[in-house]
Design a protein that fits this description.
- The protein is an alpha+beta fold and 238 residues long.
- It has one domain: GHMP Kinase, N-terminal domain (Ribosomal Protein S5, domain 2), CATH 3.30.230.
- The chain has five helices and nine strands, in the order E-E-E-E-H-H-E-H-E-E-H-E-E-H.
- It has a five-stranded mixed sheet with strand order 1-2-3-5-4.
- Helix 2 packs across helix 3.
- The longest helix has 25 residues.
- The model has no long low-confidence stretch (mean pLDDT 96).
- Keywords: Nucleotidyltransferase, RNA-binding, rRNA processing, Transferase, tRNA processing, tRNA-binding.
- It holds the Pfam family RNase_PH.
- Its EC number is 2.7.7.56.
């Protein structure tokens, strides 16, 4: 049993919109002790495979700053290669956000989503996805106001949460201590119709049944419902 919150309760989330001055959209998302700066910037060009098709693209990059973890996280440029975990999470963020936007409505432009973890205590990818949606929303709102976009391309909201089993107990929104001891660990992404966008899951220390998977997904849905309720407050200030 958790001491600071219920087993199906998410950590406190705080989103600060327009956290940076230069990007089209930016937020600082604080999710418990996990903190991520998410930005969205619109570029007036597309990858080669989309040139001349009057269609846009959305791509993402994710990284963890050296001081985000108890031991220094070495920068990719010092390693001479891209960290495999960062690359995988970058693709995840891009996939999930492309599900919530009609890229035919943004012209030949690329929206770049960048997520920089400044403090990691579990759930950095779920915080990045959730914060990036708000950063994207801000960028799109500005593009509509200045006439860059003719109509709103966003078709749904997106949020993500982790769920898992630790010591035989099902938990929602695992912090680092819980995640590092989890027998089962899943990351779940949904839209505001509570349709699944992506599930990443593994039985790290134990197997789990289809019935247990359904229970994990019910817990994720409850957590994401709370996030969308918080979105209603945040969206008043963007």
């Amino acid at each position: 049993m958790r001491e600071d919150r219920q087993n199906d309760e998410i950590r406190q989330i705080r989103i600060t919109p327009n956290y940076l001055g230069h990007p089209d959209g930016s937020v600082l998302i604080e999710w418990g002790e996990t903190k991520v700066i998410c930005t969205a910037m619109i570029e007036n060009k597309v990858p080669a495979f989309l040139r001349g098709k009057n269609k846009g693209w959305l791509s993402s990059e994710y990284s963890m700053l050296p001081g985000s973890t108890p031991t220094r996280k070495v920068r990719d440029i010092s390693r001479g290669k891209l960290d495999g975990r960062s690359s995988e999470i970058s693709r995840l963020i891009g996939r999930t956000l492309r599900s919530c936007i009609d890229l035919d409505k943004i012209g030949e432009r690329t929206i770049w989503i960048d997520c920089d973890v400044i403090s990691a205590d579990g759930g950095t990818r779920t915080a990045s996805i959730t914060g990036s949606y708000i950063a994207l929303k801000i960028a799109v709102k500005k593009a509509l106001e200045n006439g860059k976009f003719k109509e709103d391309p966003i078709i749904s909201k997106v949020a993500a949460i982790s769920v898992g089993k630790v010591g035989g107990i099902n938990l929602v929104d695992l912090d680092f201590r819980e995640d590092s001891n989890a027998d089962v660990d899943l990351n779940v992404v949904m839209n505001d119709k509570f349709e699944l966008i992506e599930i990443q899951g593994t039985g790290e220390g134990d197997t789990f049944s289809v019935g247990e998977l359904n229970e994990f997904l019910k817990g994720a849905k409850r957590g994401i419902e709370d996030i969308f309720k918080y979105f209603e407050i945040v969206e008043k200030y963007i």
